[in-house]
């Protein structure tokens, strides 16, 4: 999609700002789409087709040409998914420590429901989700997720979702990544641990949270698959 958008934009002599305005998205979002840093969705395909006055197939043309034959034929071969790092409730790390985790990519199938969303994996550290139902998420599990920024327009947060949450404090100098289960409570969103350990507590964020306490919270990813290793003894 990136090549197609760039070709369409330059053919019209548009700047990034003009293309973003035509699509009704932010300049930053458009640039990510053009560079291929953000995955295709039905919404962005439709917006691009309307903005540039072309058929959706023309937006998809570059993608179809560059995909392996198995994908074009409808099969879904495994793909390598980057492991972004560790999710550990209650552990704040210096901001510069993030992005320096060294883990081998894992193999996973594309998400059937959201095939254009980027996939990312996290390794669970600790017992904050070891009582999750219907299946526990124990220490050492690998969570295969979809990037929430790729699906936020079509997949609103709802009760029961397992998500990867980032909390920052001290002006973003300290960060915590953790897995939580969402509970919508009126105008608030509650992020719940599901743990056998009572030290893990839920936290509630008002939907219109202004971060006057110095804390920022965002949903990074939606958990779609849990990979566990069974002990040998």
Task: Describe the protein.
This protein is of the alpha+beta class and 233 residues long. The chain folds into two domains: 2-66, lambda repressor-like DNA-binding domains (434 Repressor (Amino-terminal Domain)); 79-227, Ribbon (Umud Fragment, subunit A). It has helices spanning 2-12, 16-23, 27-35, 42-52, 56-66, 69-72; strands spanning 79-81, 83-87, 93-94, 106-108, 119-124, 142-147, 162-169, 174-185, 188-192, 203-206, 216-227. Strands 2, 3, 5, 6, 7, 8, 9, 10 and 11 form a nine-stranded mixed sheet that branches. The protein has a two-stranded antiparallel sheet with strand order 1-4. A hairpin with a 4-residue loop joins strand 7 and strand 8. Helix 1 (2-12) packs across helix 3 (27-35), helix 1 crosses helix 5 (56-66) and helix 2 packs across helix 3 (27-35). The longest helix is centred in the first third of the chain and has 11 residues, at 2-12. The protein starts with a helix and ends in a 6-residue tail after the last strand. Residues 62-75 have low confidence and may be disordered.
Descriptive labels:
two-stranded antiparallel ribbon; 233 residues; 434 Repressor (Amino-terminal Domain); single chain; 2 domains
């Amino acid at each position: 999609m990136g090549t197609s958008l760039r070709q369409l934009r330059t053919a019209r002599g548009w700047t990034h700002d003009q293309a973003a305005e035509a699509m009704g998205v932010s300049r930053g979002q458009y640039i990510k789409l053009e560079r291929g840093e953000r995955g295709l969705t039905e919404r962005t395909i439709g917006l691009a087709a309307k903005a540039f006055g072309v058929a959706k197939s023309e937006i998809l043309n570059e993608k179809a040409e560059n995909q392996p034959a198995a994908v074009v034929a409808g099969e879904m071969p495994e793909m390598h998914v980057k492991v972004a790092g560790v999710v550990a409730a209650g552990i704040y790390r210096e901001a510069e420590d993030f992005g320096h985790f060294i883990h081998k990519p894992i193999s996973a199938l594309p998400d059937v429901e959201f095939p254009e969303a980027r996939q990312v994996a996290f390794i669970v550290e600790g017992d904050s989700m070891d009582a999750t139902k219907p299946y526990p998420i124990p220490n050492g599990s690998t969570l295969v997720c979809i990037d929430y920024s790729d699906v936020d327009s079509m997949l609103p947060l709802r009760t029961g979702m397992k998500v990867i949450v980032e909390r920052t404090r001290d002006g973003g100098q300290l960060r915590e990544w953790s897995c939580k289960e969402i509970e919508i409570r009126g105008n608030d969103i509650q992020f719940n641990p599901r743990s056998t350990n009572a030290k893990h507590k839920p936290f509630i964020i008002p939907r219109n949270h202004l971060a006057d306490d110095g804390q920022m919270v965002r949903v990074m990813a939606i958990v779609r698959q849990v990979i566990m290793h069974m002990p040998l003894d």
